[in-house]
């Protein structure tokens, strides 16, 4: 039997504020659609019966004059009720829109399909999940934002693009997500189940007796063969490409102290702000010393995310400022702790499915399910997990216990992420990075090295000038 596209309604409302009990609707936009076909649309201003705050005018470009003569909600309610019917409501954080409608006794039985939740699940590496950010990532454009009909149309287009992503999911990833969906606080699972129905996949565990037999024989889960990492060759160091157009000039005081310390092989402690100009002002003299002599440069960072920013932003900017010929080009490697990598032994082990964690943790596991299939590094900083979802990482992260465990089939076949990260380390001509915490432990094991030498500290004062301290 052919799959029939369901009727859905994308909706967006603009209001005088965020408090359902106290604020009012000022604009409604709705689009009824079936797949790519638009069935009906509706757009109107609504008389709020209260002053329109200036911040809302700035956000929406709706002025009080535009609301003069607008109908009351009671006037437009019958038309809107007919359009909504009992179709699922689509929107970005659609629960907010539904709460205002339900206060007015509309959409009380309509299912909710939240494109914010669906995007955070299917696009787990995005730094922001605003409607505009998600649309830009998916290549969906809109002429305007924070207007009701335009945002409703954009939410529809985003949903269709996300559903295309769902259709591209492998069967085992889709099955895992559908198993997690009933346990999630996630008004976005309906498209997952509809796609499983369309494919004719059965519900329940997707681990067959045959798969379990292969698992026992190979000492690994056969689904690992579908991961992208299982198709990759041994990793090589990443070329470091200069980025032209940087505006940060080397700070003479910083450059002098760092250059002298490197030439004399003495430590220098430089205290600066964490802003881009300060970071790159430190990197520029370091690169100027290391590149011509083909020295290895080890840069410690406080977190994996900070280290990735150094690799992807600050080093290319600093290299572009120098304008040095680089033949062969330098390379850079991110080297993190085992706990900062996904552990496939734990990912396919019983712990992930044997426990019944909080819904937020389950949401994190659902995001990890999508991410794990495509990641080439397994690095924690690739994926966006808010604080409430972070416990999901603790269930599947690596540790020295697992990375050094004898007989691990994933490590023996070269798929373990932590050893792959170590194999990206470059030779002496290249740049590498170790996390600050590990470096601190390495130094403390043999005693502090800074205390045995004279060190220079540069502190930037309130006037922006650097002052030396010894």
Could you please describe the fold and organization of this structure?
It is a single chain. With 470 residues, this protein is an alpha/beta fold. Among the domains are: 162 residues, Ribonuclease H-like superfamily/Ribonuclease H (Nucleotidyltransferase, domain 5, 2-Layer Sandwich), CATH 3.30.420; 144 residues, no CATH class. Helices cover 43% and strands 12% of the residues. The protein is built from 21 helices and eleven strands. The strands form three sheets. Strands 3-2-1-4-5 form a five-stranded mixed sheet, sandwiched between helices. A four-stranded mixed sheet has the order 6-8-9-7. Strands 10-11 form a two-stranded antiparallel sheet. It is globular and about 80 Å long. It starts with 6 loop residues before the first strand and ends with a strand.
Keywords:
single chain; 470 residues; alpha/beta; Nucleotidyltransferase, domain 5; 5-stranded mixed beta sheet; 4-stranded mixed beta sheet; 21 helices; disordered C terminus
Break the fold down into its secondary structure elements and pairings.
Layout: E1 7-15, E2 25-34, E3 37-45, H1 54-60, H2 64-67, H3 73-84, E4 89-91, H4 94-103, E5 112-114, H5 115-122, H6 131-138, H7 148-167, H8 171-180, H9 190-199, H10 209-218, E6 238-239, H11 252-263, H12 276-293, E7 297-301, H13 304-322, E8 331-334, H14 344-347, H15 351-354, H16 359-374, H17 391-396, H18 400-403, H19 409-412, H20 417-423, E9 431-435, H21 436-445, E10 457-460, E11 466-469
Helix pairs in contact: 5-7, 6-7, 8-9, 8-16, 11-12, 12-13
């Amino acid at each position: 039997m052919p799959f029939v596209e369901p009727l859905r309604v994308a909706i967006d409302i603009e209001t005088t504020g965020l408090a359902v009990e106290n604020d009012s609707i000022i604009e409604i936009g709705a689009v009824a659609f079936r797949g790519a076909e638009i069935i009906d649309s509706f757009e109107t201003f609504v008389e709020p019966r209260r002053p329109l705050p200036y911040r809302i005018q700035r956000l929406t470009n709706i002025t009080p004059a535009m609301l003069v003569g607008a109908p009351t909600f009671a006037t437009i309610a019958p038309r809107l009720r007919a359009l909504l019917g009992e179709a699922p409501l689509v929107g970005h954080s659609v629960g907010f829109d539904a709460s205002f409608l339900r206060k007015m006794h509309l959409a009380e039985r309509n299912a909710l399909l939240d494109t914010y939740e669906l995007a955070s699940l299917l696009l787990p590496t995005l730094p922001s999940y605003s409607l505009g950010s998600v649309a830009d990532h998916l290549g969906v454009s809109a002429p305007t934002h924070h207007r009701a009909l335009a945002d409703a149309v954009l939410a529809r287009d985003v949903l269709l693009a996300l559903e295309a992503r769902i259709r591209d999911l492998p069967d085992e990833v889709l099955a895992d997500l559908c198993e997690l969906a009933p346990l999630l606080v996630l008004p976005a699972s309906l498209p997952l189940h509809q796609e499983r129905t369309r494919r004719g996949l059965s519900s329940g565990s997707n681990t067959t007796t045959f798969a379990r037999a292969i698992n026992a024989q190979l000492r690994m889960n056969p689904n690992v063969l579908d991961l992208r990492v299982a198709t990759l060759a041994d990793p090589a160091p990443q070329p470091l490409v200069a980025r032209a157009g940087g505006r940060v000039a080397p700070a003479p005081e910083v450059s002098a102290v760092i250059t002298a310390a490197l030439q004399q092989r003495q430590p220098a402690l430089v205290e600066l702000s964490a802003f881009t100009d300060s970071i790159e002002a430190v990197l520029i003299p370091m690169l100027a010393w290391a590149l011509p002599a083909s020295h290895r440069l080890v840069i410690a960072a406080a977190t994996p995310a900070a280290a990735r920013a150094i690799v992807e932003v600050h080093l290319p900017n600093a290299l572009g400022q120098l304008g040095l010929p680089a033949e062969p080009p330098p390379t850079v490697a991110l080297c993190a702790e085992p706990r900062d990598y996904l552990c496939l032994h734990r990912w396919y082990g019983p712990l992930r499915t044997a426990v019944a964690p909080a819904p937020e943790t389950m949401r994190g596991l659902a995001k990890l399910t999508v991410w794990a299939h495509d990641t080439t590094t397994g690095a924690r900083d690739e994926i966006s997990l808010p604080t409430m979802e972070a416990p999901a990482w603790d269930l599947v992260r690596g540790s020295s216990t697992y990375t050094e465990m004898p007989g691990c089939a994933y490590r023996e076949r070269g798929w373990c992420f932590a050893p792959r990260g170590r194999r990206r380390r470059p030779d002496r001509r290249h740049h590498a990075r170790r996390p600050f915490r590990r470096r601190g432990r390495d130094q403390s094991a043999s005693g502090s090295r800074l205390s045995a030498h004279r060190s220079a500290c540069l502190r930037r004062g309130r006037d922006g000038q650097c002052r030396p301290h010894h």
